[in-house]
Design goal:
By secondary structure, the protein is an alpha+beta fold. It has one domain (2-80): Mth169, Chain: A (2-Layer Sandwich), CATH 3.30.1280. It has two helices and three strands, in the order βαβαβ. It has helices at residues 17-28, 52-67, and strands at residues 2-10, 40-47, 73-80. The protein has a three-stranded antiparallel β-sheet with strand order 2-1-3, covered by helices on one side. It is elongated, with a radius of gyration of 16 Å.
């Protein structure tokens, strides 16, 4: 059994309203050094112990079909065995 972590973020060209709101709130709390905050999604999962290349292919497919919206989001994943 392997563990996989999927990290999904909005593409740099897409405005991140949630990130901007949180950044303003942090500034209001005195954390004025925070800049360009972007909020994303994180998913951790356990996957059957297929060969690493096969797991990578499956994770890429999962992200493209369901976990991320490739039009507005970027994704990457890490596999730990």
């Amino acid at each position: 059994m392997a563990r996989a972590r999927v990290i999904i973020t909005l593409k740099k060209t897409i405005m991140d309203a949630q990130g901007q709101t949180v950044e303003r709130a942090l500034h209001d709390l005195g954390y004025s050094g925070v800049q360009n905050l972007r909020i994303g999604k994180l998913g951790d999962m356990e996957v059957d112990g297929a060969p690493r290349e096969q797991l990578s292919s499956q994770l890429d497919e999962m992200c493209r079909k369901l976990l991320a919206n490739p039009i507005i989001e970027d994704f990457r994943f890490e596999i730990e065995e």
